[in-house]
Design goal:
about 230 residues; single chain; 10 helices
């Protein structure tokens, strides 16, 4: 493993261990760390075959640290900022993290799309935004199901809605906004340094195959299967 990702892993492990000691609500902490139990091993298992850039690992590291902080106190009760002194009625740490979800994860998703699906031009920026927003929606659904099935007693703390019936919708909107900002910034940087940026964008929107899909695609496949 390269030194930089290894250093990030070591720092994250130290932070995670420190914040695992006496969390405010242990049941909620267990629920929040389901994400960690799945995501961190996945990154480790895929490192040899599909390592990411240092930029992507840094963005993922920052998000996971924010998540560890939220898991320790619960997102609704993180005391790092006095939100009421700023004129807010609720603790907005969860809003910050949902915005960060899109802001910090969209670029690693883009890197995967670029390298696996060779997504270029417009699609290289739209698909990461789309997938990050979809991940946010899936996470909200999983969060609700886990809270109901695994630990109903910890559900309120885990969901962190703080009495807002539109909390999940706002969280997804923030994640989408964060991803949009990340992709606009990435596109702006590439526009400045990539010589063929404009042409690549145009080419990505051109029709590459005039053949229709649907029933015509099925008919073509059946004809190929029958042979000459």
């Amino acid at each position: 493993m390269r030194k930089y990702p290894l250093a990030l892993l070591a720092v994250y492990a130290a932070i995670w261990i420190a914040l695992a000691i006496e969390p405010k609500y242990r049941d909620d902490w267990y629920l929040e760390n389901i994400l960690v139990a799945v995501f961190v091993p996945l990154l480790l298992l895929t490192y040899r075959r599909f390592p990411l850039s240092d930029v992507s690992y840094t963005l993922l590291f920052v998000f996971m640290v924010l998540h560890a902080i939220g898991a320790h106190w619960t997102y609704a009760e993180v005391p790092l900022i006095d939100w009421r002194a700023l004129g807010f009625e609720r603790n907005h740490f969860d809003r910050v993290v949902h915005l960060s979800f899109g802001l910090l994860l969209a670029y690693p998703v883009k890197e995967v799309f670029n390298r696996v699906a060779t997504a270029k031009g417009f699609w290289g920026y739209y698909l990461p935004l789309d997938v990050t927003l979809a991940f946010s929606a899936v996470y909200e659904i999983v969060e609700w199901v886990v809270a109901e099935l695994v630990s109903p007693g910890a559900g309120t703390a885990f969901l962190g809605s703080q009495g807002d019936p539109f909390d999940a919708v706002k969280d997804m909107a923030l994640a989408g906004s964060g991803a949009a900002i990340a992709m606009l910034v990435t596109a702006g940087i590439n526009w400045r340094i990539q010589r063929d940026f404009t042409e690549e964008m145009r080419e990505s929107l051109r029709v590459k195959d005039d053949r229709l899909g649907g029933e015509q695609a099925i008919r073509r496949l059946l004809d190929e299967k029958r042979g000459p």
